[in-house]
Every structure is written in C-alpha cells, then in structure tokens.
Design goal:
heterodimer, A: alpha/beta, three-stranded parallel β-sheet, 5 strands, B: alpha/beta, Transcription Regulator spoIIAA, Heat Shock Protein 90, five-stranded antiparallel β-sheet, four-stranded parallel β-sheet, 9 helices, globular
Amino acid sequence: MKSIVLSEFAAGRLLGTREVALPIRDQVTAALDAGETVALHFAGTNPTQSFVDELVGVLVLERGESVLDHLVMKGCNEDTKAILHFVVGDRLDQLAERTALA
Amino acid sequence: MPHTLRAPVRITFDELQKFLALRDEVHDLFDTKIECDCSALTHVDPFGLCVLKHWFNDLEERNVVLRLRDLRLPIELYMRRMDLFEDCELVLLDDRTGSYRRRDMKGQLIELQSIHDQDAIQTAANEIASTIVHDLPGLDFSADPDEMTPSEGERAEETLAYVFAEILLNALSHGRRRNYKHAYANIAARFYPRENLLEVAIVDNGCGLLETLLTHPKLEGELTDSKAIEIALLPRVSCNRAAELGLDNTNQGIGLTVSTRLALAADGRCGVVSGDSVHSLMPGGLVEKAVIPYWQGTGIFLQFNKGVLPKVRKADIIQALPEFRTVRKIRFDA
C-alpha cells in the first residue's frame, strides 16, 4: 500500500487549493495504475472542499466509484469526513447524470 | 485646477453606495489631479479598506494624483497602520503621524494584503488566519492533554483559514479564466472588542458573479447581478462543469456557501457585492438587497462573533447542505 502523508503539503494545517492537490493526485494516479491501494493520511490537516475535490473528486469522476475500493482515508476528523462525503457524493451523482444522458 | 471630491463620513460595507458614487465622479479621468476633502471621514471598515485600495491602484494606472486633505489624525493613523497607502505613490497626504502617539491596536487590526497569485493562496490564508487568532484577546490555545481535541484557538484558526482559502481561490480563479488576467484580491480584517466582532473582507476586481455564472441554468431568464449573487450562495453551484473547461477545472461551488453559513453560525452576518448588487445576510434568513453603483468584481464581507467562532463546526454546516449524503463506500481508517 502506498501512503501519502498530506500534512507534508500543508501550510500550517491548511490544505487549501486545487494547485496543491494536483501533484499529489499524480502520485495517487501512478500508484493506482500500478495496482496499489493508496492510503491518504489526513491527520493534522485542515483541507478545503476545493482541495479534496481536486484530489479525490476528480479521481471518482475519472475512474468511477470503484476507485474507492483502492483508497483508504486515514486520520480524518469529523470535518474532513464531512467534506469527503460531500465531495464524493456529489461526483458520484454527476457520474450518474452522465450515464443517464449517454 | 484639480477636480474636487468630498469623502463620505463612512466607507464601509453597509454604506458602500456613497463611496462608489464618489468613485464614479472621477471614473473617466486620466493624467490629472484630484483633491479629496476627507474632513468628514470618521470610519473605514475592512471592506472599505479593500475597495479604497482597489480605487487607489486604479487611479494610479490612469496617472491620477489623489490628494487626501484634512484627513483626521486617528483615521489617517489607522489607514497607515493597515498599510493602505503602501505602494500608492500617487496618493498624497500630510504625514502628521510623527507628531501623534501611535495607539497600540495590537489584537484589533490585520494589515490589508493584496493577493495576486493562486500559488500564494494557501500560505496567505494560513498566515492571515494564524495572525488573526493569535492576536485576538481571550482565545484559549491550551492543548488538550490527550492531544485529541483542538483548542478553541486552533478551531477558530482552522475555520478562518478554510474560509480565506476558499474565497481567495474563487476570487483569483474565476476571473483569470475569463481574461481578467490581472485580477487580484484585497483582504483585510479588524476585531471590534466592544462588540466582540471580527470582521473580514475579501474584495476582488475580477469578472464578477454574473459573468462567472452566465451559462448556469438557474440564471435563465434573469441575467442580473442580484440573481447571480442569489445563485452563488446556493450549494453545488458550479460555473465550471462545462466540458470545454476541462475535467481538472470542475468544482462544486460550496466554498462560498459554507463560508457565509459559518459566519451566520458564529452569530455574525455576511454580505456579497458583485456588479450592481449587494446582498446582506443575517441570522434567521433575513436578506437585504440593494442596488449600488457598479463594482467590477466580487466582494465578500464576513462577520464572526469571537466568542462563538471556536464553537462552529464545518462538519455541521456541510452535513446540513441539502445534497449531503453519507457515502458508505468511502474507506475510513484511524
């Protein structure tokens, strides 16, 4: 399992922008393509919805719901969990809309 | 002969119309001088500072010299303390602050900052939030012995950092995508100890909400700035789902929604300015709307009760959004 410690990318505890998430997602993508499961360590961080959407939401949109089988969210406080549920839920809904239109 | 203006008594979010009307009196001037009688000016809030800074920069680009006359010493001192005149070479005033004992306003003021680059947002949002909360009197930063629960100071800092990052990202990304390449955002904050209120303003000179949401289906039939503000405050409003912008630019548009609801949850209020409209939101759902002289861009005003701020939880706000749902397939692990 590949582990990514997200606090290493934070300013203080803040993981604030899509730009910060992009290179991290590249790491995740490479590991997923190599057949690995990826553990995202959120402990000690304060992520924004924008960051989480760029990191995880885009993966859901690109790879579908099954990508969640290969991602483990570690060290999440209640705020981070809420953001993850919202982001992933919304992207899953968007996927469903696209499928319905197709 | 210089053009003459008379500054209003207050340059604030609540009385923005008066300042913008003043600004419009000289909007088409180039290569000239303006004398502004500031004898009546007594108060400038963080929102006022942000719009003043934009105005000063705009005048400078047009090579217009602005002389501020009879500015009262306390207000001049406050403006200088907030770095309002930094890099404003064409704004002239009599510097009498040397003869005035500097009031120690530590814990009340956060200097105005201009953010130009998206790369700077994360660091700036963190630093500004950290500075604010560490200077606010009475916030407890003592660590939980088990280090499981953040202190109230840490919670307040996290909330503010989240809000600043999301709003600054909106400010600098939407305009840049629409050829407002030089758009930037001013951010300022002030704590009012008597009212126990922290006020924050973030004002940009980008494309504004109407242009951002021009193709949004909810705007159909009513292409107005007021309607754009109303829609922007709804969750899941995304201007960027359009395929031509590319997958990496999609977003879900809850940053502004959550930020404004955090302020309301903290017994404060909030407001949005864009184009010719201003919406002011109060706890309890009351919304006041007004028409104002045109502002090119978007301005956000947030007010937090310092005592309540540490108690508001982003999780509560997000879970209360209509579209929130628990996704059981997400794998969480301690």
